[in-house]
Design goal:
Blueprint: H1 2-19, E1 44-45, H2 51-54, E2 63-65, E3 68-69, H3 74-77, E4 84-90, E5 94-99, E6 104-109, E7 115-121, H4 131-139, H5 142-149, E8 154-158, E9 164-169, E10 174-181, E11 184-192
Helix pairs in contact: 4-5
């Protein structure tokens, strides 16, 4: 009897197993594609374009000087800048190289060789297309500066840097600087990478 019950139980398992629905396959995991990176910002060559008209809300990321854009490998673009003036200065994090007879200073990160900052100074004013930036570089006209960019977001005196006064526009990653060098005022526009 026990054998019959066992036989009946085994047959039942086989019959029920054969009639049972097949297990549903596991759904394949959904792979979400990463969103493509945003396109790089449009850049404007400051020697050719009046940036205050073309892009009134510009930042340092919209600026190109002689084909050099912040983030470029300096070795790839150095030939665009012309003759180097003087020797390269070794700073704490950057190499400072002067071009255009003191009118253009390129800050290159020591470890990466990337252009992190471009500074335009008074000797380069005549090459700039934008009359607002040109006016600042020529004579540091603060009234024109504030009419153009609004009130500065911060004002800092930096006596250890040629008695510099920095007019900071941090939201634009732009600093307009007044230096006192050998008793004479000099003016600069410093465009930097987003920190």
């Amino acid at each position: 009897m026990f054998r019959r019950v066992m036989l009946f139980g085994l047959l039942s398992v086989f019959v029920l197993g054969a009639c049972a629905p097949a297990p549903e396959p596991e759904p394949e995991p959904v792979v979400e594609e990463a969103a493509p990176p945003p396109p790089p910002p449009t850049t404007y060559e400051l020697t050719e374009v009046v940036i205050s008209e073309e892009e009134p809300d510009f930042t340092s990321q919209n600026v190109t000087i002689l084909g050099v854009t912040l983030g470029d490998s300096t070795n790839a673009v150095v030939e665009n800048l012309g003759e180097q003036t003087g020797t390269t200065i070794v700073g704490e994090d950057d190499y400072l190289t002067v071009y255009q007879e003191g009118g253009l200073i390129l800050y290159t990160h020591k470890q990466t060789g990337i252009a992190r900052r471009i500074e335009l100074a008074t000797p380069y004013a005549d090459e700039i297309a934008d009359p607002n930036l040109m006016a600042w570089l020529e004579n540091g006209d603060q009234a024109v500066l504030r009419e153009w960019l609004g009130a500065e977001e911060a004002l800092e005196n930096v006596p250890e840097n040629n008695n510099a006064t920095e007019f900071a526009y941090d939201s634009r990653v732009l600093w307009l600087v007044k230096y006192l060098i050998e008793g004479q005022d000099c003016f600069a526009g410093r465009f930097s990478q987003i920190p």
